């Protein structure tokens, strides 16, 4: 990607933070984007993420986020290893992660992943479930809930996702009222390459861009 294209994408993301979604992309492409000024990268698969972290640890102040579904049996591996884990999608997962963080004596920043459209195929808390489990989530003392994340239903146009982004923003505002300082609830991670402009209009503080930065992903893992 040309420096000039990179700069204009970064600019179009303001005031949100732009994450470069580097899943399945080779380390060389990460180095290239880093050299253009990008610092925050997001990965989906735990093993791939940890390998890249290790291989690229020479890139000072690089920041890693985890955005893919996290299995409970991998929680130990990721505890304390990411600037932010976006994909905490059940109370059980939050509890397991909290326990590993307590053992390592670290506090892990997380987002709660919301299934805004109640899709059967999707991970995440439904709005109803989250309201019910909220008091219990607040007691997890080695996690810091920074906000909410969603992947809305795949639609043809950005306009159709707008109501889902609005809902996520309202839910964040509602829950923030009862959150203690340990759980700032400021962030809204929403918007990918094809709908990030709409997401930003609806209050996204973090957008997750893959294809628009790196081109199509290689399909083989
Ligand atoms: C892959 C992925 C993205 C990036 O999607 P693009 O369409 O390539 O921008 C964002 N968020 C999540 C959770 C992803 O898995």
From TrEMBL:
Superkingdom per UniProt: Bacteria
Pfam families linked to this entry: Ala_racemase_N
Keyword Chaperone: no
Ranges where the Alanine racemase N-terminal domain occurs: 4-218
Entries under SUPFAM superfamilies matching the protein: PLP-binding barrel
Family statement drawn from the similarity comment of this UniProt entry: Belongs to the pyridoxal phosphate-binding protein YggS/PROSC family.
Role summary: Pyridoxal 5'-phosphate (PLP)-binding protein, which is involved in PLP homeostasis.
Protein name: Pyridoxal phosphate homeostasis protein
